[in-house]
Amino acid sequence: MQKTFVPKNPGTNRKWFLVDAAGKPLGRLAVNIANTLRGKDRPTFSPAIDQGDFVIVINAEKVLLTGRKLEQKDYQRYSGFRGGLKHFTAAAMLEQHPDRVIMQAVWRMLPNNKIARKMMTRIKVFRGDKHPHEAQKPVPAAY
């Protein structure tokens, strides 16, 4: 009789990957980051077990939005009060908070559950090419 293989949680044995977002399309970048956070690149992937890795994204302000998305794409934030709905274009978001553009794109590509909230703690997005995680010795990602 065959036994079902259940992968273990990697715990502290997670890898660190460095991603340069300069000139890469936002959607394709977010898919690859989400797959790394979930652990879908591992041969022992299981959707119920969080076995993904850490991802450091640099040059967030240089991410590429194709077509007319800079003017047409709309981001919203709601304060909870009447009249508290704020709208921002993608160009304004990239200028003020480029990290939020990438974080929101990755967040929407993860499953809607508790595991995804934990996965989002492992993504670090920075403006510019400097980051404070040199001690973890991140490996450049292949995408």
What structural class do the secondary elements suggest? alpha/beta
- By CATH reckoning, the class of the domain at 16-65 and 98-130 would read Alpha Beta
Relative strand content: 15-25%
Tertiary shape: globular
Order of helices and strands: EHEHEEHHHEE
Largest β-sheet summary: 4 strands, parallel
What spatial order of strands do you see in the largest sheet?
5-2-1-6
SS element count, helices: 5
Fraction of residues in H or I helices: 25-40%
Q: CATH superfamily name of the domain at 16-65 and 98-130?
A: Ribosomal protein L13
Number of strands: 6
Radius of gyration: 17 Å
- Unreliable spans: none
CATH architecture of the domain at 16-65 and 98-130: Alpha-Beta Complex
Q: How much is the average pLDDT? A: 95
What's the CATH topology name of the domain at 16-65 and 98-130?
Ribosomal Protein L13p, Chain: A
Description:
- This protein is an alpha/beta fold.
- It contains five helices and six strands, in the order E-H-E-H-E-E-H-H-H-E-E.
- The longest helix has 13 residues.
Layout of strands and helices, then pairs:
Blueprint: E1 16-20, H1 26-38, E2 54-58, H2 69-72, E3 74-78, E4 85-89, H3 90-96, H4 98-107, H5 114-119, E5 123-125, E6 139-140
Parallel strand pairs: 1-2, 1-6, 2-5
Antiparallel strand pairs: 3-4
Helix pairs in contact: 1-4, 3-4
Annotation keywords:
about 140 residues, alpha/beta, Ribosomal Protein L13p, Chain: A, two-stranded antiparallel ribbon, 5 helices, about 30% helix
Summarize the structure.
With 143 residues, this protein is an alpha/beta fold. It has helices at residues 26-38, 69-72, 90-96, 98-107, 114-119; strands spanning 16-20, 54-58, 74-78, 85-89, 123-125, 139-140.
